[in-house]
């Protein structure tokens, strides 16, 4: 297909089919540069188009994602501030509740019911001796 083919000079081509007597015979190389390139690149043209479209779509998606994240950034910072304030309130509430919790656990514990009874009521343990201090005057 791409082999060299002998061609006739221009003078012989115009006027007759025979070569001129004194004219030199020259060969012309026939090249099919454009069709050959398009045939060589044809299998890759679709792949190049597909890759270009993919890059474009991914670029658009990346820009949209970054824009969305930038819009959400102030909201996130606000929520983190509220969360920190809530954590501080929880710590304060735990400081108030822990002594009350210990007291309540002591009331309901069955380890020392007599001590609990003495703390919660004016009654005393009947087996306990009462000590009464009297004032003595020296005369």
Provide key terms for this protein:
about 140 residues; mainly alpha; about 65% helix; two-stranded antiparallel sheet; single chain
Describe the structure.
The chain is mainly α. The protein has three helices and two strands. The protein has a two-stranded antiparallel sheet with strand order 1-2. It is rod-shaped and about 175 Å long.
Summarize the structure.
The chain is mainly alpha-helical. It has helices at residues 10-15, 33-108, 113-120; strands at residues 5-7, 26-28.
Give the topology, please.
Blueprint: E1 5-7, H1 10-15, E2 26-28, H2 33-108, H3 113-120
Antiparallel strand pairs: 1-2
State the end-to-end CA separation: 150 Å
Percentage of residues in strands: under 5%
Oligomer: single chain
Element string (H = helix, E = strand): EHEHH
The chain-level mean pLDDT equals 79
- How can the largest sheet be summarized? 2 strands, antiparallel
Strand neighbour order, sheet with most strands: 1-2
Low-confidence regions: none
Helix content: 55-70%
Number of helices: 3
Radius of gyration, whole Å: 53 Å
Number of DSSP-assigned strands: 2
Shape: rod-shaped
Q: Given the helix and strand composition, which structural class is it? A: mainly alpha
